[in-house]
């Protein structure tokens, strides 16, 4: 909105030309979303507390969770989404289809997460909606998003899969891009959801991945930089950097309230929407594999759950003391803060490796 307004004033006031720069608008979107979260944070926490909108704690989890976390408000993802949408709508180019694709994915997956949180609160247990229902709705939402990007994107790269570390290794997926994109969107959404189990555990890795893709989307949308780095040039995708900036700002603001001991949890409202959003950015920038590297912690958490389920069904034995894997280390006696910080360190390392793939080609 402000971007459109200032763009119309450029001929009259040349100073407003500065708002055409992606770097400036990305910084402003990050600052805006963070301030919005700071403003709405305490009122929302107080309101949720007064209405007893609390996250039911798993009774099979670490015993200290039942003592320390019971009664903590949930659905903090609502404040994250308010921040993200504020930053994008104010500073993004709303004529760009990539922005609307990202807004749709964040909003629709956020609504699904909010419904799941509502069911958990209403039933007063950690189950929420059934896994089958959640998965089916995620698939439907993702398919609509894929249709949006297919119809309104002018990119000729939609069918291509690029591999990092190689200059010319590209696979044309044909129509297989549909199930592949489906896997990315649904998989990334659920992976972040599984990671969100300790105070601040998912928030910082989301910030790191969003920061990486703010840079990736910027260089992918710049014909000079993309040619220099030997990555696909995608016209208009640079606008995704503003969306990523909004995620960074909103998550930084949320971390203020979510830092141990958390005053509020993001809930599925936040984790499903943030995970889906990161998957969406990976898709439009054509860096899906790099997304798996930078978001490797989320992949590890998801794999630990899958391996645990398969092992138990086939052998009756569990690989981990508890899944997702962060609970395994808690069960082994690691303090929650130790698990969180060490997982953050892993995320930082993976983010640096992911960015290194841009040059090592």
- Overall mean pLDDT stands at 90
**Alpha-carbon distance between the termini?**
39 Å
* Widest beta sheet: strand line-up: 1-2
Radius of gyration: 20 Å
Assembly classification: single chain
Alpha plus pi helix count = 15
Secondary-structure-derived class: mainly alpha
H and E order: HHHHHHEEHHHHHHHHH
What is the number of E strands? 2
Can you tell me the residue ranges where pLDDT is under 50 for at least 5 consecutive residues?
A: none
User: Based on CA inertia axes, which overall geometry fits?
Assistant: globular
Which sheet architecture does the biggest sheet show? Answer: 2 strands, antiparallel
3D architecture notes:
The protein has 15 helices and 2 strands. Helix 6 crosses helix 7 and helix 8 packs parallel to helix 15. A hairpin with a 7-residue loop joins strand 1 and strand 2. It is globular and about 60 Å long. A two-stranded antiparallel sheet has the order 1-2. It is mostly helical. The mean pLDDT is about 90. The chain has one domain.
């Amino acid at each position: 909105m402000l971007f459109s307004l200032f763009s119309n004033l450029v001929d009259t006031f040349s100073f407003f030309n500065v708002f055409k720069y992606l770097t400036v608008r990305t910084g402003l979107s990050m600052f805006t979303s963070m301030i919005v979260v700071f403003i709405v944070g305490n009122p929302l926490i107080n309101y949720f507390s007064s209405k007893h909108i609390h996250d039911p704690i798993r009774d099979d989890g670490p015993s200290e969770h039942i003592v320390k976390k019971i009664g903590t408000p949930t659905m903090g993802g609502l404040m994250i989404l308010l921040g993200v949408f504020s930053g994008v709508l104010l500073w993004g180019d709303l004529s760009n289809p990539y922005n609307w694709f990202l807004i749709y994915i964040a909003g629709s997956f956020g609504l699904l997460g909010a419904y799941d949180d509502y069911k958990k609160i209403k039933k007063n247990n950690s189950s929420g909606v059934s896994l089958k229902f959640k998965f089916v709705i995620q698939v439907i939402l993702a398919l609509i998003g894929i249709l949006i990007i297919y119809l309104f994107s002018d990119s000729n790269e939609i069918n291509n899969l690029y591999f990092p570390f190689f200059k010319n290794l590209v696979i044309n997926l044909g129509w297989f891009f549909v199930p592949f994109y489906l896997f990315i969107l649904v998989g990334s959404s659920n992976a972040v959801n599984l990671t969100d189990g300790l105070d601040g555990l998912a928030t910082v890795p989301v910030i790191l991945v969003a920061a990486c893709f703010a840079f990736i989307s910027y260089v992918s949308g710049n014909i000079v930089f993309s040619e220099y780095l030997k990555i696909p040039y995608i016209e208009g995708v640079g606008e995704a950097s503003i969306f990523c900036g909004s995620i960074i700002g909103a998550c930084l603001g949320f971390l203020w309230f979510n830092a141990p001991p958390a005053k509020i949890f993001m809930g599925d409202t936040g984790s499903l929407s943030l995970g889906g959003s990161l998957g969406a950015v990976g898709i439009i920038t054509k860096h899906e594999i790099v997304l798996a590297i930078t978001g490797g912690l989320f992949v590890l958490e998801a794999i630990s759950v899958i391996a645990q389920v398969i092992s138990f069904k086939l052998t009756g034995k569990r690989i981990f003391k508890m899944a997702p894997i962060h609970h395994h280390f808690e069960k082994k006696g690691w303090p929650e803060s130790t698990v969180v910080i060490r997982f953050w360190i892993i995320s930082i390392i993976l983010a640096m490796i992911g960015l290194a793939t841009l040059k090592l080609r």
